[in-house]
Design brief:
The structure is a homotetramer of 290-residue chains. Helix content of chain A is 52%, strand content 14%. With 290 residues, chain A is an alpha/beta fold. In chain A, helix 8 packs across helix 10, helix 8 packs across helix 11 and helix 8 packs across helix 12. The radius of gyration of chain A is 20 Å and the shape is globular. At the C-D interface, strand 8, strand 9, helix 8, helix 9 and helix 10 of C face strand 8, strand 9, helix 8, helix 9 and helix 10 of D. Chains A, B, C, D: It holds the Pfam family NAD_binding_2.
């Protein structure tokens, strides 16, 4: 069966993700708010730049937008192809996924919340991780399309579960980032060599992807490359804390870390990389983390 | 040059560490508070069980005791061989290292704070990580002996720096453990499959050694194997928080996590494994983490 | 002008509040889910027990229910008297107030969020504090009716502002309660006489209504009288944390305290008094607060 | 019996406290590091400016210095009158009190840790609160002298207990200050009138001396009068957190608040008033608290 696939939202992630689809599908439609980006994509990767209304006539529709609110707003006026599957790769809100699943079902459209991790490098190499919530049969139908873009693709639960896992992943990363900045500042204050210290820690129980990748590649070398904006991390931690609250749970470390990420996001320049959380700590502690 | 090496403190770590020394040194002395353990070690590994006073006549003296207070108390009445190097593998207090270095120097004995990570499996396979503080020349002299027991051996700074790195490592692990329990409880409450979810997280930015090893191997499977007692982790987090305070730093995530580890340590059975922190969260949230 | 006044919800607060109205208004209607309570009130205080539909034909309609969700659910099917003012004394959610204000306005009914403080004793003595959000002219029209029940009656802002102030008040109380339990446990552990210590603190900068009233009257004497249920306090702290999050603020002390109150609420018997937060601390610290 | 009384340390508190002593004792000696302040005191209040060695020949010796380290350093070389009572009004460290009590006892000098609260206004009006640790008979002997300076004078426990109570009082104040700033920022963000809101809160369960005095008198009016330096508050919260840790307690709200006070102290100008904690929050939240 020949499927038509479309991709909506050609940001830093979406642009690279959509580039893999023509290798697997004969007809790939792309749409982006600023249309010249879609045209550039079509020229470069052999996709077709179309109108939004055309894009939603595909069999499988990927979306990758900044927030769930953007997705809801975009979907509202559309007449989507009956029988289509909407695979939403946004780092979104679980409640929104549940709502969209119900709304789209009425129009005979299936919805999966399918956020990804792996950053732009993972998008480029089609090695993303997909954490997917929604109906299991829908998941299986959309699996080949997701496999074109990712490596580890997991069905983690009902609608909203994918967004929940992504939010918790980013929340854990945020906690680890705060802890790493605090620990590094402490060692620096006591005259310890940070490079040597974290080489030890990275071979020990205190290791995290933050200590082994973020610290050396973004913070110690003062590069703070702008690949994942701090306000988006703040948003994700907010989603995670909402999940905590909705379930009436006690999560003091998550709650404290969320406060700090929010403060850092309020403090730094808009669109600063998430690693600039380190700069807030440097300001509060008068200790450079390098 | 033929060196005599001794090992003081044959606990779960020390017993396994000392076992490697006879492969590299012709004369290896061991001492333990309960002497039959030393004799068993001598019989099994070809070491010599001696008195404490004899043990401290070696050229290189390893110690591995529960706390710095134990080391200080043990050293006080001893007449240590002039020119010896004392390599203290205890997870100790930086201030104590600085004090012992000065006190022992007066007796022409060098002191290194050289705590290890890698747990009993690392001790057994001689793949421990040593994070070492103290004089760099002393470090180089003691390096071959440490290489007999470990793989990554790093000089991280002046006296006390080794203990500081170990305390911060364990503090980071403690933070990650709290965050992992909180995140897992949240996902569980929202009906997410924890195994699948953490497979995704372990391939993503939220990964830590806690999420990839501690969660599946100790908590999800309800084994809580008793290998590293929670009160010792609580002690280490206390050392880390003291370092924060002494440097007049602000470290809210470390501070919050230390409180929780201390509460868990107060709550659970004495000598419970550190992973039983999960049980405190289960009690506070009425959610099983599995 | 003769006004008809009604009171909906005769719980511990509402029952006592409605009792004052017949002194000021010739016709006072009351309604309660369990109607025998309304009849008892009518017999005792000279009010009239009516149906819910009759109650909402009054000129001024007071409501005092457990949550905003209860109020929304109750209002939905009703046909309220055109021109009426609804004075909602529930400890509710600011967003709900904004929504109700708009919805009721369409039916020519004005809505004020007008939560109260002062507990049952304040309700009994008509010395409650009203913190009121909504239209200022509506506030002025409803003022005489509120003055029948309270002493300090403040217009604090637009719709939702009253609920916001109540939520923040209760959140501050929750923070103070956690801090008082922590401080008292610390002093007790160090052998300090708590009664004498808090007599000093209550004359010093560390005083709060919690230290001067809650500690001696509910905790030190082990009475924990069941007047304000801990789950309701947990709910209020959740509302406050939502306000923090919606405004993208950093409030680490509020966030940490909210987590602890939620944990205590999960732990203790349902409907335990809010002061039983002390019992959670006693469990976590193995120190009795008395 | 005629007693000679001396006062060591004529800072903002000591200067005003010592001024009351000549009304009750015929011979009052004063000493200050910068001696012209002592001479000015002698001229103004009829005390005698003496050498430090002369000052410690009094029957009752008051001291009021910035830290316990200052007191220890000052006492070390002195030969104090046998039979004297040293009343230390410093906001000091409990461990230091225990040590000084033992050391001075060997020289037949009694020591009381007797910190005060009530600020300069309380010192001026002799309405201070004394929270006193140490031997009860010594307390009773020194009581008349303390009564010359204060109103509420309490024996709260053994040596160190006075310092502990003062540290916990200031810690509670610090928690309340953080919570008040967080709560006020939240209300401000939601458009609530802060003056009206806190008038309600001050009549409700969320009241504290911080909300009823510090907020209106120092923060809302942007005066931040420099009467109690933030680094001294940070020091006191550090003492309180040490007490928590020494007793192996879990005190998450104290721990989080201590971190924030320390951060604020690191951030603001040296010697800024403690109320400038509000300025840190304003920076982190981009919300003015007024």
């Amino acid at each position: 069966m020949t499927q038509i696939v479309s991709f909506i939202g050609l940001g830093a992630m979406g642009y690279r993700m959509a580039a893999h689809l023509p290798k697997h599908f004969s007809k790939v439609l792309v749409w982006n708010r600023t249309s010249n980006k879609a045209e550039e994509h079509a020229t470069t990767y052999g996709t077709q730049a179309v109108t939004l209304q055309e894009a939603v006539q595909a069999d499988i529709i990927f979306s990758c937008l900044p927030t769930s609110a953007d997705v809801e707003h975009l979907i509202q006026p559309l007449t989507i192809k009956s029988g289509a599957i909407w695979v939403d790769c946004t780092s979104g809100v679980p409640e929104s996924a549940k709502k969209l699943e119900v709304q789209l079902k009425e129009k005979n459209v299936a919805y999966l919340d399918a956020p990804v991790s792996g950053q732009t490098i993972g998008a480029e190499n089609a090695t993303l991780t997909f954490m997917v919530g929604g109906n299991i049969e829908t998941f299986e139908k959309a699996l080949p399309a997701m496999q074109a873009l990712g490596k580890l693709i997991k069905h983690v639960g009902d609608s909203g579960a994918g967004f929940a896992v992504k939010a918790v992943n980013n929340m854990l990363m945020a906690v680890h980032l705060c802890a790493a900045c605090e620990g590094a500042s402490t060692l620096k204050s006591h005259g310890v060599n940070l490079q040597e210290a974290f080489e030890c820690i990275n071979a020990s129980s205190g290791q995290s992807t933050v200590t082994s990748s973020v610290l050396p590649q973004r913070i110690f070398n003062r590069s703070f490359p702008n690949t994942f904006a701090l306000p988006l991390l703040a948003k994700d931690t907010g989603i995670a804390l909402d999940l905590v609250q909705n379930a009436k749970l006690s999560a003091p470390v998550i709650a404290a870390s969320q406060s700090l990420i929010q403060a850092a996001s309020n403090l730094v320049e808009p669109n600063s990389d998430f690693s600039t959380v380190a700069k807030m700590y440097e300001m509060l502690n008068k200790v450079t983390i390098e």
